[in-house]
Structure formats: structure tokens, C-alpha cells
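Obj.: predict assembly geometry.
Materials: sequence records (below).
Method: joint structure prediction, all chains together.
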Amino acid sequence: MALTNDQTVEIAEIFRLMGDPTRLRILIYCLDGPVAVGDLAQATGASPSLVSHHLRLLRAARILRAERRGKKVYYDAADDHIRTVVGDMIDHVAEPAEDGED
Amino acid sequence: MALTNDQTVEIAEIFRLMGDPTRLRILIYCLDGPVAVGDLAQATGASPSLVSHHLRLLRAARILRAERRGKKVYYDAADDHIRTVVGDMIDHVAEPAEDGED
DNA sequence: TTAATACATGAACATGTTTTCATATATTAA
DNA sequence: TTAATATATGAAAACATGTTCATGTATTAA
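Observations (raw C-alpha cells):
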């Protein structure tokens, strides 16, 4: 499959955003359903401010989406592709190395 | 699925490496079969030196693997998970936005 | 051995990113 | 309105990364 330059850059941008451990932790916590910012901060051990900064990036890239309910804002995966990509990668790491590699 | 901290960091590292446009282009060219370094440089428009630097990172993370044949060194995807992850992401970008997003 | 080709590597520059801290905004309750 | 909770944001500090250039190593052929 051939990609345009814009598509390549867009994909790289999504991978890049997934490529920071703090942000990836936040993302993974959001894969199973909406989670509030404060809960993400608690779960990840990052400050609410830092979590909020990361959430903004993830949201801007349409990796996550936000929904306010009262005082809290809940974030969850923007679509199933995101879940699939992260799921595949988890499988990749969970599996033992394949034959033939050096 | 619960991940250890090491696993999370390992996954983030792989995503991070896929998250640079030059490196992603190199990776995508390697998905369909072994490609020599010089051909990757030509195809991507990057210098052989830069391609080599990127290949070293991709190889160290076991995203690609190398095989020398005479003077040339051929790189290809280390396993099918890599192909799957990139393929999923291409689908993600190729598809129109889903319902319900803001 | 020498030369030519193909790739790899170290150092340095330029740029970009993550994180913290202080402060601002939104929502609800009193 | 005031206070309390929850989240967002701007700026700066600390740190990391991509790229280039010069040079080094491997392989083959003469």
C-alpha cells in the first residue's frame, strides 16, 4: 500500500505520541473505558498538570476524546483502531522472540 | 491486560522509534521484503549515513533485522507483529473519522 | 595490495520534547 | 458571591533527538 507524504507524517505523529511511557500509560488506562483526569493521575503516578498536558496532545491527535460530566472530564479511546494497534503491540512484546533473528 | 513497567517502557520505545517520519518511511519500505541500505536511501531521499543511523536504532529495537549479502546489507521486518501494527495504523489513517467524535 | 563500493559510526549542531511550577478557568455547593 | 474541587494552560528548565559531516570498517575485484 502506498502512502502520501501527509499520511506518513500523520502516522508518524500518532506513533510518536504513543512513544512516551507516561503518555502510553495514560492511553492504556483509557482503552477500557472513560477515565477521569484525576484518576489517570493517581493510576499513573504523574501530576494532574502533566496528565492534562499529555491528554491535550492525545486529544488533538484524535487518539483520545474527552467528555465532561460535571466537574470531571473523562477520556477514552477515540476509536477501535487505537485499541487494536496498542493491543497488537502488547502481543508483540508479550510473545517470545521469533525464529531466525540475530 | 496488565503490563509491567518494563513492558510499558519497551512498547513506548518501539512506538517512539516508529514515530519519526524518516524512520517510518524506512520501516515501511522494509515491510514487503529485504531492502538494501542504498536502495532505502534512494527511496526515502535521505542520505545513506542518516538511513544507516536510523537502521541501527530500528535493528537494536528488533523492529528490523539485517542480513549481509556480499557488499550490501538487506533489512526487513523482524516479525509479522510489526507488519500488523503498521498495517492497522495505515487503516486508521485511511478511514474517515468515526461517528461521535468531536 | 590497491581501489572501488557499500555501509557504519562518533562528534557536534540544531531543534524539539517532557516536566514542573505558577496561575487560570470551569463546575458545583453553600 | 465565596469556597472548594477538577482540569487546563503558559513559560521556563531540564533533557532528548534528528541530522550532517568527516572518518572508519567490510567486501569484492583487479
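Conclusions so far: Residues 36-38, 48-49, 51-53, 55-56, 68, 70-73 of chain A lie near DNA strand D (CB under 10 Å from a C1').
To do: check interface contacts against the pulldown list.
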